[in-house]
Specification:
The complex is a heterodimer of chains A (about 290) and B (about 375).
Chain A (H helix, E strand, L loop, with lengths): L1 H31 L6 H18 L4 H24 L7 H22 L15 E4 L2 E4 H23 L1 H11 L1 H6 L4 H26 L8 H13 L4 H21 L2 H18 L14
Antiparallel strand pairs in A: 1-2
Helix pairs in contact in A: 1-5, 1-6, 1-8, 1-9, 1-10, 2-3, 2-4, 2-8, 2-9, 3-8, 5-6, 5-8, 6-8, 9-10, 9-11, 10-11
Chain B lengths: L1 H22 L9 E8 L6 H20 L7 E8 L4 H14 L4 E4 L3 H14 L3 E3 L15 E3 L4 H15 L4 E7 L2 H17 L2 E8 L7 H10 L3 E5 L3 H12 L5 E4 L6 H7 L7 E4 L7 H11 L4 H4 L4 H19 L6 H9 L26 E6 L4 E4 L2
Parallel strand pairs in B: 1-2, 1-3, 3-4, 4-5, 6-7, 6-8, 8-9, 9-10
Antiparallel strand pairs in B: 10-11, 11-12
Helix pairs in contact in B: 2-12, 3-4, 5-6, 8-9, 12-13
The chains are: A mainly alpha (about 290), B alpha/beta (about 375).
Amino acid sequence: MQYLIQLLISGLAIGAIYGLIAMGFAVIYKSTGLVNFAQGEMTMIVAYIAWTISTTVSGNVFVVAVGAILTAIVLGLVIERVVMRPMLGEPVFATVMVTIGLAVILRSSINFIWDAYPHGLDLGVGRDIVRIGDIGVRTGQMAVIATLLLLLAAVWAFFRYSKFGIAMRAVAADDRTALLMGISATRVHAIAWAASSVIAGIAGVFFAISYDLSPAMFQLGLKSFPATILGGLDAVLGSGVGGLLIGITENLAGGYLGSGMKEVAGFAMIIVVLMIRPFGIFGERDIERV
Amino acid sequence: MIKYLATASLLLATAYLTGGQALAAEQGITDTEIVIGDVEPLTGPPALLGVAASIGHKIAIAEANAAGGINGRKIKYVLEDDGYVTARTIQGVRKVIDVDKAFAMLGISGSGQSIAVMPILEKAGIPTVIDVAPVKFLWEPPRKNVFVVGQSYEEGIIHLVTYLAEKNPGKKWGLITQDDDYGITVRDGFDTVVKAKKLNVVYSGNYKKGQQDFSSDMLQLKQSGAEVFLAGGIIGENIAMMKELEKLNIKPVVGIFWPGRVEPVLKLMGPAGDGIYAVDYVEPFAGPAGKAFLEKAKGLIPEAEMKGINRYSMTGYAAAKVLIGAIERCGKQPTWACTIAELEKTSNVETGIMAPISFGPGKRFSNQKLQIMQSEFSTLSFKPVK
């Protein structure tokens, strides 16, 4: 039983990271109809910036958090304004290719700006191990699960009750009609990119605290993409839940079927789910896939 | 008279041809410069080894240039980035040979990449010393112009596992390897000792390259009751595994392989990384030879590059030193044929950071002596095991 519980806890912890990144994918898709293939790279860049703040400005957790969030907002806004906005109205394929190009540039920038060595993001918190009987979990892992749950609730409330959340849903549903209603689609897009960058950045920082920071971190994006497909590409909350499901499935498969099955399990799961619900567990039926 | 004229013409023609050959020097050589090319991963995660190896080459080249170059010619180092992508390695090697007209080559990238460019190197006939990823295919069968400094992955693993097996008789073993050519080599070496020593292997895992979460793998290891564990990851993987073991509150005897034996890893592993065994053929930085190497490097490369130094800088330095020495022994007009012949004559060349290097007729692999080391968290260093 302890074995199963430990697998579930570890699965939830890594799944929460996937879930946050997957939410970032969904926020952009829901608002712009675009799949951002640079999501993993944005996660990595924000984490590296947080590490730079911690080593050069202050290691205080609040300073690093505020600095990382502000940087993530700027990163998202700059990408939207400089790279994505000029692509408005262009074919989806071309726009997606731009995000792939952006991913390569961001990935390479790690070596140019920082280095290829792994680094630890040491903020003095998150690394302690809490033991309940024979089961161990790091405080950072507990925090990322709690953060995902809080964000899921906050995002649900935002889309349901806030004026801007409703505006975003309107743009996602029909941007032309939304424009006629006085909603600025470009503003919505900009906010979506900034929000996506912040959510991905939070995942990156938690990952760096619990694991480490390395140029391989962008691969989290590849692991999180199935989560957003599973949850529904246009379902922000569903994507978060999808991350948890992928994390748990991977760990159970790895723990009971063998190490090699760990990487396969998540993808096997999305194949089965998509055969039954092609739009994902929580997705809407009429989405356009890229 | 006719006989005299014929002899004179023949002599003249011979002198012209010989002289012409001497004057028309090999590619990559001018009166003032000699070009050495290299292709390494300078971006992406494997840049950790590519950048370090290139720094090692730079140290040896700067050292030679500071001493007046190779018989008066300064060495120009041309370095290409392949991003650890084999297609780009091939492209890079072609560029270095055909466009930059390199006289000789160092490197080259990873094991798979070196294997992929072997036909190009052989066809070109360019003197090459490989130092980054020694695998048997690079020297078996021996190629005329390709020399390898180092020790084979398989031998390294055999040495490490044999040492740990003798130190921990009757214990239960666990192993995890990467799902690529590197992992297969590690597993092959491990299996050789398992058969020979009849080891009791209770856990054998295989992970996909790029995997970052090892929670279920290490939980399986714990469940198996393994007491000695060969962590077949490279850098980030080994860090993640050690952190998981710490979380699971188990501390088996752990062995790691030299691609992961870089000092910054110990800091990231934290106390969990204390006492890890490793095998290598270069000296640890904590020893006198390692300290002397760092001291030497300080005066030869920019301060910013110092932080990129790791064990691969040592292997790179040694390979470059051997190559430079061979070219130097060819005198004022070095040729590829002479350089290859001199590389073959390399005998007990001292580099100060590994056992003396030797090649020989039909021997293109230096077969370096191995040593076991153990990590010390308090000093974040590896120290030789007596």
